[in-house]
């Protein structure tokens, strides 16, 4: 539900969506455009609506997926902005409406960047994490990590770890194998059996779900992200 309602608390998404809705209403009820021109804008609306419905019912889904709607809503937002501005300002002078909207979008962007800067990891930090993971993992040995780490280490991810979120899918085993997906339950068995020489992640949920602190003896933190190595066999009680 949070993924579907996140746009309500994001000023840029909310403004873009409202302008897109106003644009459709203006085109349908007030514009004197010919049917061919209208159909081009209607196509944008149907594409945005169809993509939103598909992503809303997908599992799992995340708010960032809905960024794909921005190009189509942006096209609809232009007549929407004109429709609003023409009611309160001079329609032949679009300077001030554009400036106002631009300032709102720019201010929201600055706020989002500053608000997330304390919790997000940047690319140079991931490079340091990957460098440490490569140092602790001999070539040819498997590492349990996030996609960014494999990319920066220039190593092929183990089977099923190419896309981390795919592990949440609950499908029959033949279907999972065909899609190159390894479920969480199987990954936990592999970790317990010592299939991975090391591990690295910045995801606290990943650390807890896969019991990485209990699976490895050694750990060092790089930018507050742990890099593990020295696999520890589980005791009979833990099994």
Task: Give an overview of the whole structure.
- It is built from 11 helices and 4 strands.
- It has about 240 residues and is of the alpha+beta class.
- The chain has a 4-stranded mixed sheet.
- Strand 3 (about 215-220) and strand 4 form a beta hairpin.
- The chain starts with a helix and ends in an 8-residue tail after the last strand.
- The model has no long low-confidence stretch (mean pLDDT about 85).
The total count of strands amounts to 4
Order of helices and strands: HHHHHHEHHHEHHEE
Radius of gyration: 24 Å
Structural class: alpha+beta
Largest sheet: 4 strands, mixed
The percent range for strand residues is: 5-15%
Described by the principal axes of the CA atoms, the overall outline is elongated
Unreliable residue runs: none
Major β-sheet strand ordering: 1-2-4-3
Q: State the end-to-end CA separation.
A: 35 Å
Helix content: 55-70%
Number of self-contained structural domains: 2
Kindly state the mean pLDDT as a whole number?
85
């Amino acid at each position: 539900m949070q993924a579907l309602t996140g746009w309500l608390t994001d000023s840029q998404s909310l403004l873009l969506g409202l302008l897109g809705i106003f644009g459709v209403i203006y085109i349908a009820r007030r514009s004197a455009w010919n049917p061919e021109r209208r159909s081009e804008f209607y196509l944008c609306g149907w594409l945005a609506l169809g993509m939103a419905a598909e992503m809303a019912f997908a599992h799992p889904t995340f708010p960032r997926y809905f960024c794909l709607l921005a190009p189509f809503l942006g096209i609809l937002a232009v007549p929407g902005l004109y429709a609003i501005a023409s009611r309160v300002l001079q329609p032949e002078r679009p300077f001030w409406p554009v400036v106002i909207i631009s300032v709102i979008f720019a201010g929201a962007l600055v706020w989002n960047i500053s608000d997330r800067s304390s919790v997000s990891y940047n690319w140079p930090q991931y490079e340091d994490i990957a460098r440490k993971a490569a140092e602790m993992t001999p070539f040819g040995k498997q590492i349990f990590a996030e996609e960014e780490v494999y990319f920066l280490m220039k190593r092929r991810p183990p089977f099923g770890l190419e896309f981390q979120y795919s592990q949440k899918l609950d499908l029959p085993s033949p279907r999972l194998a065909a899609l190159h997906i390894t479920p969480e339950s199987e990954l936990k068995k592999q970790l317990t059996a010592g299939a991975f020489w090391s591990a690295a992640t910045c995801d606290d949920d990943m650390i807890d779900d896969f019991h990485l602190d209990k699976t490895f003896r050694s750990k060092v933190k790089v930018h507050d992200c742990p890099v593990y190595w020295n696999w520890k066999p589980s005791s009979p009680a833990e099994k």
